[in-house]
Sequence to fold (238 residues):
Amino acid sequence: MQDPTVGSDFSHRTRRFDTDPHEPELGSLPESDRDEEAVNKTGTTTIGVATTDGVIIATDKRASLGGRFVSNKNVQKVEQIHPTAALTLVGSVGGAQSFIRTLRAEANLYETRRGEQMSMQALSTLAGNFARGGPFLAINPILGGVDEEGSHVYSIDPAGGVMADDYTITGSGLTVAYGTLEDRYEKEMSLEEAQRVAGAGIKAAAERDTGSGNGIYIAEVTEAGVEISDYDLNEFDT
Fold:
């Protein structure tokens, strides 16, 4: 019996796949035509400071396109993701929003299943795993929270690295903001003092970085929960 596929149009229309069936490797993302460099240039300044009494997270309010055009002047770049933890939005807006929703959902599921809140160590590890293996594009958020072990601030890099520190800064205005914090940070600061220092750092960055500005959102994270408030830049001294 003749093979109907031999010499027929069907044999010439057989689809060939150029992708490697073994790719992508675990923890990596498939190649895409998206301009990752453009994603990195959305601009912002976010600051996290840990104190004995809790954590202060401060961000500016500006959303820009590559730091050249202001697309929104009142963006809340810090959100609560856990009863006693908050996360900033840095990088691709869509990627950062998706990242926050995913992390918040996992924290809620953990609490529902186990009847206890996720520790900051576990939450930061989960955030790093998601950043490394998920489709969140270029994000570099700050995670700040309080648990039984005390106050914690973590920087989550786009490759999934998790770095804990007493204070950290991410975004396009970090070089200016770091100078302010290096000069004013003290180990035994109160929450109120940390708020003033973080606010001054955001204001200093807004003076020079075109991707940052239009006001400040500050999240105060304590054992009692997360409180987010907005401020004018002029309320802080540089």
Observations:
- The helical segments are 9-13, 36-40, 93-114, 120-133, 174-184, 191-208.
